[in-house]
Amino acid sequence: MTPQEMERRIVRYGELKPCKTAFIDAHTPGSNQKENFTIIGAGVSESPDQHIHIRETPGFNIGAAGQPPKCRNSLHSHRTAEVFFVLKGRWRFFWGRHGTAGEVVLEEGDIFNIPTGIFRGFENIGTDYGMIMAILGGDDAGGGVIWAPQVIEDARDHGLVLGKNGKLYDSKKGQSLPDGVPPMPLLTDEELKAFPEPTTLDVVPHYVGRYWDMMALADRQPARVIGTEGMLRDRPGFEVELLGRGSIPETPYTTPSHEVLMVMRGHWKLSWQGGEAVLAPGDTCAVPPGLEHALVPSMTGEASLYRVRNTDDPAGPTHKLAA
């Protein structure tokens, strides 16, 4: 593989292209400044304006959300896994029908394997622009977003209507639902009963990984974060590890799986027969199956990255909470 071919498989943090109209709450006060990024795969954006950096899906999707302080993402649910880690800032995640069932605050490097089938939202509670990176299960990311009813109602009051076809229509731009396309129906009270309301104690001990705990585990080998032997035991169609300076393979290696490298801290040199590249914090690299490669920090100091590989497990939860 030539350096040019590999560079096309690297999405640089400084070259990420945001979409500010990706979801139904794009005009809703408090949510109207967020930016959505689709890095690998089609993602779950409801807008045709969403830029996709790498379309090939390795069995999961990679995305990101960037938000200024006090900006929030509205309550929604997914049919498959949704995992976030904090790249920059401090974030509050909350969940439940009205966002009051439980919450947790995540710092930089922390990871949250959000239980499938609950309404969840998040907001930047830091003092600067923040960024969270996302891993979504499945090639099609579960077929889209399920919104809490009040989110759809609030959006309609501010000019955005979601069609049953999963596409957004903006009345502020003169758009309306096409003939034959009804609006997305609100979930009924009976349907809402299927969405659990877990408490903070139900969720945090089993679904949240703290960065410095994982870095301690990565002292001699990669810290297994999500997977059959991970600290957050789940099988959502992919596995996640955290690598630090002390857990680097001593020799080049290959894997039959797709491998996505997401740098958290430091600069890393990726080398393979044919070239090398340096990955910086926030960069995402899709290493193809079967490519022999090596990975080492290129500078002294703190170094960490998340490594994601596809598995043969279905793109769904193994620990879904009961309603």
From TrEMBL:
Transmembrane domains' residue ranges: none
Report the residue ranges that make up the Cupin type-2 domain in this protein: 69-132
Q: Which UniProt keywords apply?
A: Metal-binding
> Does this entry carry the keyword ATP-binding?
no
> Could you name the domain of life of the organism this protein comes from?
Bacteria
Kindly give the SUPFAM superfamilies that the UniProt entry links to this protein. RmlC-like cupins
What's the name of the protein? Answer: Cupin
Ranked from the top, the taxonomy reads: Bacteria, Pseudomonadati, Pseudomonadota, Alphaproteobacteria, Hyphomicrobiales
